Amino acid sequence: MSTGAPAAAHVPARLQVLPALDGLRGVAAGLVVLTHAAFLTGVGTTGGLAGHLLARGDFGVSIFFALSGFLLHRGLAHHLEHTGRVDALGYAARRFARVVPAYWLALAAVVVATRPDVGNTVLHALALHIYVPDAVIASFGQSWSIATEISFYAALPLVVVLLERLRRGHPSRPLTVLVAALVVTSLLPLLTAPAEFGEDLLLERWLPWRAPHFLLGMVCAEALRVPGHRVARGLTRLARDPVGCLAVAAAAYLASTTPIAGSLTLDPAHGVALLLRTGLATLVAAALLVPLALGSPSGLSRVLSRPAARWLGVVSYGVFLWHLPVLTAVYAVTGAEFFRGGLLPLLAVGVPVSLLLGFLSHQLVEVPASRLTSRLLAHRRERRERDDRDEHDPERPLEDRGAQAAG
Predict the structure, then answer these.
(1) Which element (helix H / strand E) includes 97?
(2) Collapsing DSSP states into helix, strand and coil, what is residue 14?
């Protein structure tokens, strides 16, 4: 996949590492764990303001999506700028290795324990379950966001190439287009009809309805490339005030616990309630991401860059995959009843076990799969470069070059 631009280098320079984003990923995972614990114990609806705050921890998914939008768009756009092409195969292989093996392992454990029907299992394995109304595995319900994330992975390379074409002669145009897309997709909830969980398609889980969160991250990535753009200047001013950004995040999060953002349970939202929930989630994610991605070092970035915070971010994917099966397993083992309280005991058991499984997932599945993929891609790149050198070797017989090309 190419824009036709000449390649400036085979391997572009590395992008700056932002360690605080690991910590933010850990915060997102913590919110998701807390919201599921609050739901299972019933505290989300019966625990007053504290319970309501825990119940809205599903905003952690929006933070995950914004981080993906920022990091993946920044990486692909940077590679395209320096090489003139998007290595779609390499990108797909790296994304597959990073996400799918650990996902399949967790799914396999859940399938063995709960024995859903074969069709449901296949849909989950292919990450297509969000497109079928009744494809639900209760103890793996968080997996809907993996399906949404994978659909974003599939769309992003083409989007990056199209934006690069828009950039020719107008470097700031991609940022303008992304902001417009964020605004337009934020209005999609107004087109959403009422739905019943487990009976109707939940459009709010599909990529177009979740696009504002991904686009937020992409906007931040583009703002780094065109700092003179009006939007980039505005975001940079906001990034200089991390305390103010935290206040905005807290206010938006608090507002999301009120009835204006719809139910605090699994009941799907629609119309204005979904519009407001999506907007508030986007605002929370923006207020946390912008000062870390576009701002200078601050107290917030230093806290999120500490080793413990970064470690939580590193194991966050495994924690995300395993926490709900672990929490539901606690009920199965103890015989406790759902929605009857017991939040602290549930967390006391579920969090350490989820952290351990998340760590093991990272060390034994995610890292080995990514390393193997990196080695295979490096071998592929070396072979391609060697073939290119041989092809242009003036001392090599022409018939040999032609034979290699035919082979």
Answers:
(1) helix 88-114
(2) coil
